[in-house]
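To assess whether the prediction recovers the assembly geometry, we first specified each molecular entity separately, as shown.
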Amino acid sequence: MKAQRVEIFVSPSATPADTSNLQTLADAGKIRPDTLVALVGKTEGTGFHDDWGRVWADVALRSWTARLLGVPVDDVAKHVIFVLSGGCPGVITPHIAAVTREWVEIDAPAREKRLVVGRAGSDAIVPEEVGRMGMMRKVATATHEAMKDAGLTDPKDVHLVMVKVPGLTVASIRDAESRGQTVVSHDLTFGPEGAGSYANDAAALGVAMALGEVPESSLSDDVVRRDWDLYSEVAMTSSGGEKRHGEVVVFGNSTASASPLVIGHAVTKDFIDAQGVRNALRSAGVRFKDGLPDEADLGRLVHVFAKSVIPGSDQVRGQRITLLDDADAYQIGKALGGMLVASVTGRTTNYVSGGERNSHQGPPGGNIVAAVVRLG
Amino acid sequence: MKAQRVEIFVSPSATPADTSNLQTLADAGKIRPDTLVALVGKTEGTGFHDDWGRVWADVALRSWTARLLGVPVDDVAKHVIFVLSGGCPGVITPHIAAVTREWVEIDAPAREKRLVVGRAGSDAIVPEEVGRMGMMRKVATATHEAMKDAGLTDPKDVHLVMVKVPGLTVASIRDAESRGQTVVSHDLTFGPEGAGSYANDAAALGVAMALGEVPESSLSDDVVRRDWDLYSEVAMTSSGGEKRHGEVVVFGNSTASASPLVIGHAVTKDFIDAQGVRNALRSAGVRFKDGLPDEADLGRLVHVFAKSVIPGSDQVRGQRITLLDDADAYQIGKALGGMLVASVTGRTTNYVSGGERNSHQGPPGGNIVAAVVRLG
Amino acid sequence: MKAQRVEIFVSPSATPADTSNLQTLADAGKIRPDTLVALVGKTEGTGFHDDWGRVWADVALRSWTARLLGVPVDDVAKHVIFVLSGGCPGVITPHIAAVTREWVEIDAPAREKRLVVGRAGSDAIVPEEVGRMGMMRKVATATHEAMKDAGLTDPKDVHLVMVKVPGLTVASIRDAESRGQTVVSHDLTFGPEGAGSYANDAAALGVAMALGEVPESSLSDDVVRRDWDLYSEVAMTSSGGEKRHGEVVVFGNSTASASPLVIGHAVTKDFIDAQGVRNALRSAGVRFKDGLPDEADLGRLVHVFAKSVIPGSDQVRGQRITLLDDADAYQIGKALGGMLVASVTGRTTNYVSGGERNSHQGPPGGNIVAAVVRLG
Amino acid sequence: MKAQRVEIFVSPSATPADTSNLQTLADAGKIRPDTLVALVGKTEGTGFHDDWGRVWADVALRSWTARLLGVPVDDVAKHVIFVLSGGCPGVITPHIAAVTREWVEIDAPAREKRLVVGRAGSDAIVPEEVGRMGMMRKVATATHEAMKDAGLTDPKDVHLVMVKVPGLTVASIRDAESRGQTVVSHDLTFGPEGAGSYANDAAALGVAMALGEVPESSLSDDVVRRDWDLYSEVAMTSSGGEKRHGEVVVFGNSTASASPLVIGHAVTKDFIDAQGVRNALRSAGVRFKDGLPDEADLGRLVHVFAKSVIPGSDQVRGQRITLLDDADAYQIGKALGGMLVASVTGRTTNYVSGGERNSHQGPPGGNIVAAVVRLG
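The predicted structure of the complete assembly is given in tokenized form:
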């Protein structure tokens, strides 16, 4: 039977444009033009929307990938999905994780489920759909297609869904309004009423709809960024004004896999919940000793993907914090997630994105953590 | 025999000037004019030297204390030591810990050592001594006196020494130079060559000298902020331009104590070392279960005092971080320490100061953590 | 006939709580309990909503005023209007301008119009009115009353209208929604879709309505923060969650005045338009020499009140600027207005507030500048 | 006789890596491989030392220049000098000014002096010379050589000297100390005692020495960043750890020139002195009308180069400002210089660098402004 063999290679970057470690992997045959499916990484810089570290990294990585694949730069997006999250405040090491997938023949299904990955693009999402049901439905459909591409049928086997969707821009708002349509917000930021937040959150609810985490009957335009009890435990979403359709990458476990890797996930119950991070590692199969990840076994931990959304409340376990009032909350919030994860994994090359306030990515106050572990 | 009975009351503050919780403690007789020895707290605000949150808190707390004691505001400093650390980024709840001490008669020494506290002022420290041997020697002498006041003789029983010393100012530099003296730096900041950093670090080495952590023969003007292998594991120091002499508060354990509290401490080995924080709790007597503090026992944890000095290296466990290059490193560094402690203690009312780069307070890359626990 | 004699005393502040210069004025009889009508100032600090410098200044000034007036602190607001704008980035000197008014008998109307001031409170403004027509109408009515109090009938004689209105809070939104009402925004910030911005802008349009700058027929809920061609040239507005009704202070010129002062105003045409600032000075009567304010005459300039709203466009005179993308735009925008004014007035004790993006206070891209000059 | 024909083309940049306007100039033959001598510009980004906007711009511009010249990227520095100043806060439009020079035959010296440009590299500057007399002397020698290359003999004809020198790095300090040498500072920042500031200031004093603005006998290691009465009125300097020798570009006026351009300069007397900026324009030949630059004549203004060093004092014209205490002083200080210049030139494409505190580039509290004007 045909099965996937998925690998993830985590490469620290010395500068935003550093592709030397990726090239070494390519030279060694570990990354090949026909196997590279995604580059997911953290880039150093401000983390804001005009973060030139991230933009430069994007340009340099697309250019490197075009050379690897032997295609024009503009065609790279057809072959490889890029998820670059800007900003490495604190103890987040800038790095790129290259995800590869090859198809192999296996005699029988694996005894234990192993990592598979699937991808899909959504139909075009028009500006009036951004942050609303239209976006949710198209993301849900694409999530189903990506699951199919991954060979996954049971939502319980899905542990991480990375989504990129269109945001709004001055131009796309003008377009919608010229056609007599309204848009979800005129605020183009990722603030509490910003179009970027609405786009990310509708995408998350689209994943939740696809996986049955939230029944479609509970969903409407009005619940987005209002009813925080509706959320996904596996969706990590982002949005950009330049995009016209959604992109979805699903990570899960399947017996139709020859991968040496397994994925697991958990959610933190609040912003300081290290146990939630430990649960993610345990879920993926890291061995524990005396309640803590066994240091001798942590070498098998390949990578952690975590969100660090700031809680919408100013209370953590009954005490007031001032983070919501902090002018630097966006960067500090991301940095704190980096510390929570690093203090558990004992390493700093973790993928931690976030900083926004409140989200349907994870439960109220909590965050999503996924972990990939190499079979022992 | 005469023994101390020391208590620590941790009061969250709703605003910088909020003294309502302290007043409730005073009304209940828990804080009395003759027992209050120190107010140690975190105040919300920028954390910079012109942090008006901290200044306002200082004014409000001195005014409240003057009313409690029935003395003029200017005399408050003779009776109560104030250690207010500005800036509560992230998950640090603004709070004031009131330290009280009363003298009681006990029949026999306690079977296990319990918390005692001692205080002393140093001789006046002139500007040319700031950040140099002169300051170290005077702080060392005051540390010995504070130990005596606490009834402590063995340095091993000392678990936390809080020190405030004079920094440099434009005026005090002019004074020194007009007398033909030099000063350690013309940079008045807490930057890597700033007078504030030199003052704090000489104070820390003074404590190290007093406790025998560093032999006096190893100390000289030249080692300050140069030889990072010389450090104290219990000194938390700060400096201010307005001061003329040093103030020292020593916390330790003694059998000549009727306190219901015990103190312990440990150091972290690096910036993400949660185990170091756990060790501090264990040292103070918190019970552990499966490698983690037993949640049922964490109610006995009264307070944690921790530093969060940023490492001088851009490497954490072999991977690069960008914190040293971050324009917001001062606040992010403090916030990260707050998360490291909160993720272990499960609460946000921890005293965490820091943000400066490199220090003789704790080992290179690591930080000091002290914990106070109520006897079970 | 009865006439006003209005004076403005500009007092630099050494710290947020510094009232020493005000006390000196009180000791000299220049500020009296029966003459003090307003304290308008710039306070040092972050300028954000949790700016403890501004909060501390507010507490200290109200306390000082209560002592001056011999009334409880809670009653001060009935007698004196406080307009404290936080944040003195760049070349804005922290200061308080005390506005006094006494009533005197004069034989005949003044030959040239002179400064008068009038005040009024609006009816209570409920949360569902914030940022909408309800607020505009109530502010318009109060503006008419304040003009009456000032003895002004012709809108052309009005040169500055300072307004404070209620904003929204978590509690007031809950109140409105529990009564089946909607609110203008759930974003409590001063961002582009924030309730604070809507409140300020509805207040400005209320002034514009009262003065006939914008016909009432052009106004509706929908134009607020949408139709930037509707604006006031004299309204400087602010909002706060703690308020329940609006407060209006009108400054204008009248022949029924014995004041030694005259006020004038102008608007800048864009963000770098120093000529607009010069026009304000010229309008108030500063003599010019060679196209510039005559330095020998600038001693007669008493005070300048200016807004520094950031343009909504990323173009200034046809070239791109990056201010809209700047994480520090709020503070930099305010600082730039301070420089524009100081470079014309040759002094740094100017009242400059702003930093928000786009507003109905002044024309698109431009800002309001009012100047008060002493008669020669 | 042989004469220079110098041109300056100011190209706004849409992104840090935008070379499209430069390419248009190249396509039109205005920039040629044999005429391009320098690219001087402002790049958008944080302005800090890890400003990826500036780094990306540098990479993209060197790559573009290499293609234009037909040389390897590593050889570009031998042909073209790059002065890229990061950070465009406020009203500074990101742009690149291309300086070209060709040699032409003229019949007779020009009647009025016109723009010439000259370049030179210094001898290698070792780490122990950074910020000290060794650096001053080598920069002075290179300045003389650049003057010679420009055909200038009289220092009065020199209106702008741009200098880049080596700074210190962890590696170069280690190198110096391993050879028994000391370095000027271990602080690698541009703070008040930072090596970057010492390097820039020694370079400025080197120019001052070369031009006779400061007699060599007044100079010593000890005066750098101590005796602010020693300064250059034409030196704009920067430093970088990667450099091993200094680079100097001199701009002046000469009769041996066929340029259609003239340069002039002036200094501001303090931080808000718009008259100083106007004086620079007047010095370069802009016509004035009623004390202000004649708007009809401003079309002849080609470019302005200005510094915006923050004053070392907290007083401007006798009033206190809080800029020295501002955590964002570096960016706000630069932004304020941008506003001062733009409010005079009526445009935002001005080269304004700075933000550091105190410097030997310009008088205490004041700044250098140079202007280039096209002959009418």
